[in-house]
Amino acid sequence: MDGLKYTKDHEWVKVEGSLGIIGITDFAQHSLTDIVFAELPQKGRQVEQGKTAMVVESVKSVSDVFAPVSGEIVEVNEKAGKDSGIINRDPYGEGWLFKIKVRDASELGKLMDAQAYKKYLAEQAH
Amino acid sequence: MGLKTPFFEQHKALNGVMVEFGGWELPVYYSTLMDEHNAVRNNVGLFDVSHMGEFMMEGPDAEALIQRIVTRDIAGQKLGQMKITVMCNEQGGIIDDLTVYRLGEQKYFFVVNAGTMPKDFAWFEKQKKEMNAKVKLENISMQTAKLDVQGPNANALTKKLTDIDLDAIKFYHGTEGKVAGLDSIISRSGYTGEDGFEVYFPWNRAQEMWNAAWQAGKEFSLKPCGLGCRDTLRLECAFMLYGNDIDEAHTPLQNVYSKFVSFNKGFVGKEALLAQKENGLAEVLVGFEVSGGIARHGYEVYGKDEKEKIGVVTSGTLSPTLKKNIGLAYVPEEFAAEGSEFKIKVRDRFLPAKTVKIPFYKKS
Asked: Residue A54: in which H helix or E strand, if any?
């Protein structure tokens, strides 16, 4: 998906002004298979880049979702909390997870763009 | 790298996601766990369980030796009948749970867990020696492959593979005969809570069975099933998983196997179990439901006040059939009554849980 920034842990962030909308990538949802539970973070919580922001669970496993950028959680996707299947069905759209008020925009420079992420996935596959 | 079953290449060809389990490389799922779980509940699925261990025992002292090894009374076990039981060490700790098939007057067949197979066989040999029993004891684990066909359509599918009158085989019974042209042992049983068959056949001719099963399975949309759904299916039925729910640190009196302890005969561990019965149980295994998250193996159980740790979760999952978070945990005996409330620590939250009746799921 063009216009998004990606982490090596397969999160994406879409920056709109000072807000970052965050979710997990299609690769991540596919690797998890059926997501049956999303433990959303608390609104108002400060998260740090690369640190656990929340967890998603499949039947078999628990996976951390790391914050792609530091900042304050200002909104969470209650819909994904109620029906975590939308993370599988629409990871870049309806299945977004939370929004962050970005603390330091320069952190975005550490992330990959769509092309770099694609290349990273191809490398991971070998 | 773990041991490989004869179907390793087939698993890879079916895009099985391979994991190590009990020293073996096996598929955890092929499509998704949910798909495979639902296929077994509603249609039919095929499991490669060739990793399981198999022993054969034959001779005049077979019954006496088995009576010594296992806690359940097998006197009067009918030909073709299989019984689930456990074997204990002198302290009453569970060495393994196993099934005992009676194939002939003096001929028995045993199925044990993969990870425990070496210690189990050593234990069998030790008991044989101590009793000086006249039996021939063979470990045929590495010559015996196994496939399980499980689900409401298992009977219709398996009929296409054999002339054996499957309708005449009652649940927890089996027979020797030809399946897909191979000398096999087949029983009507399984680890899923559905109707189904477990088939044991020669390792070196396993491909023939595989091909025949898939050929027969075409019209039923047979699905390959991995360890992932095997675990969720068995947990919905509260079937024990060795190493999780039962182990040498627990006795059969503390879990569902208490009903298979026969004090009317001698067996290894009997004195320890009698003493435990006398002194009371430190903890017992209960089924629970938990709200607000999934409780998994190893998570801690607390009293309602969230202050004192009272136990530990041995197995837990979201139940794909019931859409509830279910599990098993060892807790003090006062929490064994249905409706008893406690908390389970899931990451940094204490989630409310209550004791429920097991099995969680029963075939209608």
From this structure: strand A52-58
Alpha-carbon torsion, ordered B333, B337, B343, B346, to 10 deg:
90
Residue range B25-34, pLDDT digits in tens? 999 999 999 9
For the record, the structure tokens of B94 come out as 């569970």
Residue range B163-174, pLDDT digits in tens: 999 999 999 999
Cα–Cα distances in angstroms (integers) from residue B187 to residues A91, B81, B164, B196, in the given order: 45, 9, 11, 8
User: How would you list the strands of the sheet with A52-58, edge to edge?
Assistant: A35-39, A52-58, A62-66
- Per residue of chain A (126 residues), give pLDDT as tens: 778 999 999 999 999 999 999 999 999 999 999 999 999 999 999 999 999 999 999 998 999 999 999 999 999 999 999 999 999 999 999 999 999 999 999 999 999 999 999 999 999 886
CB contact under 8 A, B294 and A58: no
For chain B, the first-to-last Cα distance in angstroms comes to 41
Structure tokens at B15: 């895009």
Question: What is the pairing mode between strands B223-225 and B45-48?
Answer: parallel
pLDDT-derived band at B2 (thresholds 50, 70, 90) equals confident
Give B29-68 pLDDT, tens digit per residue. Answer: 999 999 999 999 999 999 999 999 999 999 999 999 999 9
Q: Which residues make Cβ contacts (< 8 Å) with residue A32, sequence separation at least 6?
A: A56, A58, A61, A63, A88
How far apart, in whole angstroms, are the C-alpha atoms of residue B276 and residue B256? 16
Alpha-carbon span B92 to B281, nearest angstrom: 12
Q: What pLDDT band is residue B1 in, cutting at 50, 70 and 90? A: low
Tell me which residue has tokens 């302290």. B91
Residues B68, B70, B76, B79: is their CA dihedral positive or negative? negative
Cβ within 8 Å, pair A60-B28? yes
Q: What is the least distance, in Å, from the CA of B241 to any CA of chain A? A: 15
- Alpha-carbon distance B318 to nearest alpha carbon in chain A (angstroms): 6
Is A39 an interface residue toward B (CB < 8 Å)? yes
| Rg for chain B, CA atoms, rounded | 21
**Cβ neighbours of residue A90 closer than 8 Å, sequence gap 6 or more:** none
Most distant CA pair in chain A, distance: 40
Please name the residue of chain B whose CA is at the shortest distance from the CA of residue A57: B294
**Residue pLDDT, tens place only, B129-159:** 999 999 999 999 999 999 999 999 999 999 9
Report in angstroms the alpha-carbon separations of B4 from A10, B116, B205, B328: 32, 17, 15, 30
